[in-house]
Amino acid sequence: MIEVFLFGIVLCLIPITLAGLFVATYLQYRRDLKTHLSVAQVLSTLWFGSLAGLLIEINRFFPDALTFPFLILVIAVGQGEKD
């Protein structure tokens, strides 16, 4: 990054110097972002968030299996009383 700045000063090319600084800053930002996204806390938050969303959607289309035995028992008891 310093080399880009010095090169621009030597040749009196201020716009090129600024462009070089922006490019160097952007590349450093990409490296930092990549490092940040690889942190276990971020990845685990994304994983558990997506897993929770998946389980919510599954539960919406297929209601809780624990209610089925109870409902079958209620239906069977109700049918037995009619006989």
TrEMBL record:
The keyword Transcription regulation does not apply. It is found in: Membrane. GO terms for biological process: photosynthesis. GO terms for cellular component: cytochrome b6f complex; photosystem I. Keywords: Electron transport, Membrane, Photosynthesis, Photosystem I, Transmembrane, Transmembrane helix, Transport. Pfam families: PetG. It is a single-pass membrane protein. The chain crosses the membrane at residues 6-27, 39-56, 62-80. May help in the organization of the PsaE and PsaF subunits. Belongs to the PsaJ family. This is Photosystem I reaction center subunit IX. It comes from Gossypium darwinii. The lineage of its organism: Eukaryota, Viridiplantae, Streptophyta, Embryophyta, Tracheophyta.
